[in-house]
Design goal:
The chain is built from ten helices and eight strands. The chain has helices at about 5-20, 25-35, 40-50, 60-65, 130-140, 175-190, 200-215, 220-230, 235-245, 245-269, and strands at about 60, 70, 80-90, 95-110, 110-115, 145-150, 160, 165-170. The longest helix is centred in the last third of the chain and has 23 residues, at about 245-269. The chain starts with 6 loop residues before the first helix and ends with a helix.
């Protein structure tokens, strides 16, 4: 039988893993990479989502070239608004003012080829010999959600749509990664129907997935530590966010594990 009392310990392991990651050279290299991308306004985020909802990392044509990646011929640009900044001189001092906006093209990483980018989210390797994916599909159905295979073309590992009561999982990933992704999307299904805070939602979903996977014998730390830290903004900030959401994470994990547990009990009998 799964131990219902080990969830706080697993949440503690998650925070320790994030703390170790974000004090490492690997994290510093990742932050250096991130600093070369623009920070997009809320309005531009909406524009990106409307034109390419599966986009994960976007940058301009020359920005991608600077990272030794190249936009494929024939790819359609994503158009966002950039400020038109003009330099003025007032009272002997240089000043910069915004005089309107213009549309500029950017492209998602899935529209490019070239060198691999630094990452602290390492997709999981391995199979699913215990059939965890099928068990989690059954849990999703018990919550009123269908689960579908989907090819996101490198843009995402999965998604959850409350309006359609549907979860989709990237079909080309390894079996172990697909288990982790389905646990993540199940957490979204349980926790985030009316959540408009994407950072909080991703922190809670991936933390829940880590707890669920670890309790089921699948260590997702290579992916989960980096994912949570990246979304939540670094070590201390990520750890603070996990602590603030600890009860919600534990309850969501418990709900998923309790639905899986009867199968585990049958195997142990």
């Amino acid at each position: 039988m799964l131990d219902k009392n080990n969830h706080p310990e697993l949440v503690a392991q998650l925070t320790e893993g994030i703390g170790a990651l974000t004090s490492s050279e690997e994290w510093q290299r990742y932050l250096g990479f991130q600093s070369r991308f623009h920070h997009y306004s809320f309005g531009n985020v909406l524009l990106i989502a409307a034109q390419r909802h599966e986009a994960s990392r976007v940058a301009g044509f020359n920005a991608w070239r600077g990272l030794n990646r190249f936009v494929r011929k024939g790819e359609r640009a994503i158009w966002i608004l950039a400020p038109m900044v003009y330099k003025t001189v007032e009272d002997g001092e240089d000043d910069r003012v915004i005089r309107g906006f213009k549309f500029v093209p950017v492209f998602d990483i899935a529209q490019t080829d070239g060198e691999e980018l630094p990452s602290v989210c390492n997709r999981l390797e391995g199979d699913d010999p215990r059939g965890l994916y099928g068990r989690l599909v059954t849990v999703a159905r018990s919550c009123g959600f269908t689960v579908e295979d989907h090819d996101f073309n490198g843009g995402a590992n999965g998604d959850c749509c409350h309006d359609n009561r549907r979860i989709r999982v990237e079909t080309t990933n390894t079996a172990a990664q697909r288990v982790k992704t389905l646990a993540h999307e199940l957490a979204h299904a349980l926790l985030h129907q009316n959540c408009d805070n994407r950072v909080l939602a991703e922190l809670e979903a991936e933390s829940t997935a880590y707890v669920v996977c670890h309790a089921l014998g699948l260590d997702s730390g290579d992916y989960s530590f980096g994912y949570v830290a990246t979304w939540a903004g670094g070590g201390d900030q990520a750890i603070s966010g996990i602590r603030a959401s600890c009860d919600r994470i534990q309850k969501a994990a418990a709900a998923i594990l309790q639905a899986v547990e009867p199968v585990a009990d049958d195997e142990a009998a």
